[in-house]
């Protein structure tokens, strides 16, 4: 019995050493990414502990940045009460330390985890807007300043994550940005949700113009978009069809000119535009509802490849476009539709912004 315990102990040490060596050898070739551009990957709140997989994905996709979430627990969709999940934050800090050792930039995202993650952040609609902003600043952001940004060199901080129902509160956001600037000297990002317009309904255009002309957007460093634009209604659109659809979307014949609107956002704010969360699910109809990883049960590597190729070819030359973050990296679920499923798509991403 004593002998077998000793053997188990030796095996355990060997496994730990192997894991350490593997992580130590993974290096992001950050020098191959064009200066000033962001090539990032998002990690989910429940996968920040997958350090080795995150690092492997960074290397495989030639990323120079990782979006690290800090879980913010919120009891229900109308609550203005919130608290940072300290256990998850501890794991996130371990990941941050490993990334910074390898000169990989970190963008922090206080991530709303509503009703144990059962409700998306776009649904959050606090019943008391004053309490929401007070708690967002003093409970969430202040904790992040005290425990992370004051101790580590953090490239960027998202002060909002798709807060559709709080977007209107311009004075509160101005105050929040001032509060952040006093304690954090890195890049301040405001992340908005994607939007719809339709040539046959002028009300959508009016909402879009209101969105991009919020005065507080001029006070941040980077305008981030959670980018799930409904581009093509075809089950398997070709590369050329996807590319054309970025200038006139075909879903419900909306005719939305996504590329033109990104430029309008840049012109209105004077800020670089960044896709803070973006991917194309490897499913038929993946470009119709890219926000839905289960939009179809028919697997399609081509939809994912054609989507990434078209977006890259259209946006890479645009000087106002800051970059993108892949939703998601660091997952061991190899069958998930948001995994990059082909070597061809991997090569497209790997080569984007390569020197």
From TrEMBL:
Residues 1-28 form the signal peptide. GO terms for molecular function: DNA-binding transcription factor activity; transcription cis-regulatory region binding; zinc ion binding. GO terms for cellular component: cytosol. Keywords: Signal. The keyword Transcription regulation does not apply. GO terms for biological process: negative regulation of DNA-templated transcription; regulation of secondary metabolite biosynthetic process. Pfam families: GH113 (PF22612). Transmembrane segments: none annotated. This is Hydrolase. It comes from Bacillus cereus.
């Amino acid at each position: 019995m004593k002998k077998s315990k000793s053997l188990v102990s030796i095996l355990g040490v060997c496994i730990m050493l192997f894991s350490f060596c593997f992580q130590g050898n993974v290096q992001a070739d950050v020098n191959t990414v064009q200066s000033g551009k962001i090539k990032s990957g998002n990690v989910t709140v429940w996968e920040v502990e997958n350090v080795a997989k995150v690092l492997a994905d960074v290397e495989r996709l030639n990323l120079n940045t990782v979006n690290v979430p800090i879980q913010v627990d919120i009891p229900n969709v109308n609550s203005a009460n919130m608290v940072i999940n300290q256990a998850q934050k501890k794991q996130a800090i371990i990941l941050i330390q490993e990334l910074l050792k390898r000169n990989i930039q970190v963008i922090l995202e206080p991530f709303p985890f509503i009703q144990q993650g059962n409700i998306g952040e776009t649904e959050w609609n606090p019943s008391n807007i004053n309490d929401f902003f007070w708690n967002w600043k003093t409970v969430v952001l202040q904790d992040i300043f005290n425990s992370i940004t004051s101790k580590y060199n953090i490239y960027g901080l998202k002060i909002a994550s798709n807060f559709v129902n709080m977007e209107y509160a311009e004075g509160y956001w101005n105050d929040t940005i001032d509060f952040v600037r006093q304690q954090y000297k890195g890049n301040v990002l405001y992340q908005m949700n994607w939007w719809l317009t339709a040539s046959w309904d002028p009300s959508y255009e009016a909402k879009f113009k209101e969105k991009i002309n919020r005065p507080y957007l001029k006070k941040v460093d980077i305008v981030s978009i959670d980018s799930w634009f409904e581009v093509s209604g075809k089950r398997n659109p070709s590369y050329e069809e996807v590319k054309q659809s970025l200038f006139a979307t075909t879903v419900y014949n909306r005719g939305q000119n996504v590329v033109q609107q990104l430029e309008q956002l840049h012109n209105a704010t004077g800020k670089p535009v960044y896709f803070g969360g973006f991917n194309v699910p490897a499913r038929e109809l993946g470009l119709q509802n890219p926000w839905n990883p289960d939009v179809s049960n028919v697997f399609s590597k081509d939809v994912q490849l054609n989507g990434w190729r078209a977006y890259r070819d259209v946006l890479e030359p645009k000087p106002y476009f800051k970059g993108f973050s892949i939703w998601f990296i660091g997952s061991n679920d190899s069958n998930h539709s948001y995994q990059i499923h082909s070597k061809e798509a991997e090569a497209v991403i790997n080569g984007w912004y390569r020197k």
